[in-house]
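The records we work with from here on pair a chain with its fold. The integers have meaning only within a learned vocabulary of local backbone shapes. A complete example follows; check for yourself that the lines match position by position.

:::
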Amino acid sequence: MKRSARQPIRRETAPWPLAVPAAVGVTFLLVPLAAMLLRTPWSSLPDILRDPAVLDALRLSLVTATSSTAVAVVLGVPLAWVLARTHFRGLSLLRALVTLPLVLPPVVGGVALLLAFGRLGVVGRWLDEWFGFTLPFTTLGVVLAQCFVAMPFLVVTVEGAFRGLDRGFEEAASTLGASRLATFRRVTQPPIAPAPPAGTVLCWARALGEFGATITFAGNSPGITQTMPLAVYLAMESDPEAAIALSLVLLTVSVAVLALLRDRCLRPRRTL
């Protein structure tokens, strides 16, 4: 039997009750970005970007966002599997608590981290007494704050992929004698393959832009805890042009990374 040719997808014209709000929404999202480009001090931009403080903030942002995302992947993917595939009393409560940072104000998250991992916190006092180190106002504290607010984005994305997978295929593979590893590699992994990269991108982007929990839990020390969002906030009070330039750098890095990962990891796979 010959394989049928792929039919082209017919594009529909949006009706005006949908097109008008969509156009307003796009305008609302693009106008602030266009205003930033118009107000950018292009003539002094190279001098601003060569400032060692700016380079330190950018380096710290990239390092901490990548580190927190790596921690989130290691912890979040197994957590997503547990939430999607297991059943026990209190599962709904656990899922609500795991996703709570999505709606929790970041400053409140920073306060919670202080109460837990601060020098006098529930866990922090034992870390200080037993190991002699503290997490607040350190670079490691920045990573912890970013991971706290960003990991739920990864968990929700991957859990949705696990929950949407038809388990009948896995059961059929097991019935035919496939091992659990072979079943995961050949049956489970292909349909959910786009989900972990998508969740990782969302997690990284959220960590890169984290502000409230970071400044509350880790402070704003240049070269140690001052990430790009904190540097922008500080520059707005003394040098608005520098703040605009820093915002442009952060915007450029975010767009470049998201576009690259979208093209390589998030593009839907073609099916036969």
Residues 118 and 141 are 10 Å apart (CA to CA). The radius of gyration is 23 Å. Residues 52-85 form the longest helix (34 residues). Residues 51-96+105-266 form a domain with the MetI-like fold fold (CATH 1.10.3720.10).
